Amino acid sequence: VQLQASGGGLVQAGGSLRLSCAASGRTFSNYAMGWFRQHPGKEREFVAAIRWNSDLTYYADSVKGRFTISGDNAKNTVYLQMNSLKPEDTAVYYCAAQGRMYPSASYYYQDGIKYDYWGQGTQVTVSS
C-alpha cells in the first residue's frame, strides 16, 4: 500500500494550495483518510479527515472554514483545499488512511494511532 502526497509549496499569506493524496495497492473507499501536519519541533497534529462511505468530514478547529477535505472514489484520491493560508499553517503535511471502519465519533478520526497507512510528507510554507 502506498500513499503519495503532492501539492505542497511556498505561498504568501492569504493564498491557497491544494494537496492531493493518491492511494495505491488497495481501496480505502469503505474507510477514512485524513491529513495531519507537523510543525518543526512539535508533535504531529490532526488537520482533517473524510469518512468515505458517509461523506462525513472532520476538521481541527484551527482550520475550520478555511480548509476543505474531499475525495474521489474512482481515483482513490483525497484532496485538501487550503484557503486563506496563514504563516502558522507552515508545516509538513502527511496523508494517512485507516484500514478498518470506526464509529462516527470524531475521536476516531483525530487520533493518528487509528491510521494504518501513511504517506510521505509534503512541505507547505506560508510566508507573511
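That was protein one. Protein two is written in the same sequence-then-structure order:
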Amino acid sequence: QVQLVESGGGLVQLGGSLRLSCEASGFTLDYHAIGWFRQAPGKEREGISCISSSDPNTYYADSVKGRFTISRDNVKNTVTLQMNSLKPEDTGVYYCATDLKGGSYYYTSLCTIISADYDYWGQGTQVTVSS
C-alpha cells in the first residue's frame, strides 16, 4: 500500500523546535522530489520547502528560510523537516507530498513548492506554536 505518513508535530512554545518526518511506504522516495506544505485555519495551503531527488537541491519559502532545514534519507525512505525558532504564525497542519506518477521533477535536481505539481499527499500533522 502506497503511503506518505507525517509525524513529529505537536505543541511547542515560541522559539522552540520540532522535527517533522515524512516516511514513505509502498514505493521508494529515491527518484521523487518531496515538498512540505502547511495550512493554517482559514488560510490557503502554503508551500514552504522542497527537496529534489538527485544532488539533492533544496528550496525554502521566505517565511521559513534560515529557520527550517529539509533533508532526505533514502535508506530510511524518509524526508525530514527540522524547524527551529518557531513562531505562532508557523501554526498549522503540515503536509508532505510527492509526484508519485513521475512528472517533471522525477529524478531531477529540481523541486517545487507549487502544490499542483504533486499528486500524492500525506494526511498531515498538526503543529501549534504558543506565544
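The chain has no helices and eleven strands. Keep this in mind for the problem set.
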